[in-house]
Amino acid sequence: MEFVERLEIKDNIILRRVIGAKPKVEKEGITYIYAPNIQANIGDDVRMYEDLITGKKKSLKQLVEENLIQLPEGKKLNEAGTDFEDMSEAEKVAAGLIQLKADEKVEGAYVVKKTEKEQYDAGLISKEEYNAYIDRQREAAYRQEADPLGMQVMRGDIDRSEWLAKIAEIKQRYPKV
Q1: Which pTM does this prediction carry?
Q2: C-alpha distances in angstroms, 55 versus 19, 46, 64?
Q3: Are 49 and 41 within 8 A, CB to CB?
Q4: 33-52: burial string, b at 16+ Cβ within 10 Å, e else
């Protein structure tokens, strides 16, 4: 009696690995693969293998492309196609996994808050709210840039026009609507 090694496969799943006599009658609905020293694993889907005999499996990239493995939510394949990595916030927005709030935008790989100007242009904040924000920006710039010049004007170290030019520059940098 001749002994052979075989895999028994049903619905693409390896059910059994048998070493023994070849069955006289093969079961209906079962696929048989006969070969020596088969390296595939019981319970595996045969579609995951490049070669059932050697046990060489397909790459993760190929398995994803063939829809044999689903990408976990919020993940993507790394550049090499060998592992999963987290998607950036921008990629999650593009994939529809997260929704932007009205005051948010995508900038590069990140979700960031829209500027006050963008919020005003989109009608998210009023003219008064925007101008109050501009007043705060101007006040900070005046304290940091113009006030020291004002002190120098009072001491007579610089001309008053230099101080007034700085104030005008700040107003131009932070225009009101």
Answers
A1: 0.60
A2: 17, 10, 19
A3: no
A4: beeeebebeeebeeebbeeb
For 130-159, b/e burial (b = at least 16 CB within 10 A) is bbebbeeebeebbeeebeebbeeeeeeeee
Helix (H) or strand (E) holding 86: strand 84-86
Q: What are phi and psi of 4, to 5 degrees?
A: -135, 155
pLDDT digits (tens, 9 = 90+) for 52-111: 999 999 999 999 999 999 999 999 999 999 999 999 999 999 999 999 999 999 999 999
CA proximity to 44, closest of 63, 72, 21, 27: 63
Helices within the chain (DSSP H only): 60-65, 89-94, 116-121, 127-141, 147-155, 160-173
- Rounded-to-integer distance, Cα 44 and Cα 35, Å: 17
Using CA atoms, how far apart are residues 135 and 22, in angstroms rounded to an integer? 89
What is the rounded CA–CA span in Å between residue 175 and residue 135? 9
β-pairing, 31-34 with 49-51? unpaired
